[in-house]
Amino acid sequence: MNEKTNFPTLEDIKAAHQRIQPFIHKTPIMTSEAIDKIAGCQIYFKCENFQKVGAFKARGAANAVMKLTDDQKANGVATHSSGNHAAALARAASVAGIKSYIVMPSNAPEIKKKAVKGYGGEIIECVPTLEARETTLEEVVKRTGAVFIPPYDYVDVIEGQATCALEMWEEGIAFDTIMAPVGGGGLLGGTALTTKYISPNTKVIAGEPEGADDASRSFKAKKLIPMVGPKTIADGLLTSVGKINFEIIMQYVDDILTVSDQEIIEAMRLIYERMKIVIEPSCAVPLAALLKNKEKFKGQKVGIILSGGNVDLGKLPF
Predict the structure, then answer these.
(1) How many Å apart are CA 1 and CA 305, to the nearest integer?
(2) What is the tens place of the pLDDT at every residue in 184-199?
(3) Domains and CATH numbers, the chain
(4) Residue 301 DSSP class
(5) What is the DSSP letter of 293?
(6) Whose CA is closest to 164, among 49, 85, 36?
(7) How is residue 19 annotated by DSSP?
(8) Cβ–Cβ < 8 Å for 100, 144
C-alpha cells in the first residue's frame, strides 16, 4: 500500500497480476484502420469482452477471493450486483471451492442471472433499489457469515482491475491517452493508478453516460454527488462512483466526458460492424466519448478498454 493514501502501489498491482494469472485470460489488443480513420487517431482496443465471465470484473473478483485467509473463506463470499461482478465473484468462488451468495435486483438481465447460476452462485433477488440491495445483503451476511466483497469500492478489487492497464503497458505502446468507462469507478481507478505510476504524462480520460453522470458532476464539483435515478442503456454503469475510487479519480484522472445513449449506440454499432466483435453498451462509452470530442485526441495513440461483452442479443439496440 501507498502509506499516504492507502491506494495500491505499482508493486501491489504487479503482485495481484501474478496472483490472478491462473484465473484470467491475458486479453488481446485489437486495432481497426477503419475506426482510426473515422476517429483521426490510432486506437488500441484492450478486449476485456474476451475475458473470463465476459468482462474485466473477473480480475478484481479473483484477486479479492485469492487474498482471503482460509478462515475467511470458510463461510463463502457475498455481494450485490446487477451483472458482471456477480458472475465474476461466483466464478472466483467456484474456482476457490467456496460458496457465493449474490444479491441481484429483480430486473437484472437474464443473461447475467444465468451466468451466476452457471458458476454455482446462489441468487437472492430483491427490488431494484440500492437500499434494497444493501439491506438484503446485510441479512445474507448475517445469516451465512460470508465475507462481503463489494463490486468496486474495495482496495483488493481495485488492485485486480488495475492489472488490465498493466497488461496494456507491457505491450510497449507509448499511449498518449488511456480511456475507460466509469460506473462505480473500480476499472477507472485501477487504470489511473497503473497508468500514472508507469507514465505520469499519459492522460487518463473516462467516458460516462449523460443519464448516469454522477462521476462527471462530482469531478467538476470536487465532491461526491451520488446519482439519483440513473437512466441509460449502459446498464453496467448505473451505479454511483465509490468513495475510494473518487479519491483516486480526483488525484489521477484528467477528464470525464459524457455521451448520450444515441452516441453510445452508434459507437457500439461501429465496433460490431468494423471489428466483428460483441460488446455491451457500457463498453462503447469511451469510444463514443472520443468520437464526440475528436479534436481532443487528434493524431494521438489512444488505448481504450473494452470493458465487457455481456449483452442480451435479443435486445440489441440496432
Answers:
(1) 25
(2) 999 999 999 999 999 9
(3) 10-55+154-315 (3.40.50.1100), 58-148 (3.40.50.1100)
(4) E
(5) T
(6) 49
(7) H
(8) no
Predicted pLDDT of residue 235: 87
Count of positions (residues) in the chain: 318
Q: Mind giving me the DSSP string for 193-254? A: HHHHHH-TTSEEEEEEEGGG-HHHHHHHHTS----SS---S-GGG-SPPPHHHHHHHHHH--
Closest C-alpha to 158, from 5, 311, 45, 4 = 5
Using alpha carbons, list the distances in angstroms from residue 112 to 8, 28, 115, 182, 244. 29, 24, 5, 20, 26
- The pLDDT tens digits for 282-312 are 999 999 999 999 999 999 999 999 999 988 8
Residue 273 three-state SS: helix
The more confidently predicted of residues 274 and 129 is 274
CA distances to 69, 71, 143, 302 from 75, rounded to whole Å, are: 11, 8, 10, 43
Structure confidence by residue, pLDDT tens digits, 51-75: 999 999 999 999 999 999 999 999 9
CB 308 within 8 A of CB 284: no
Give the pLDDT score at 1: 47
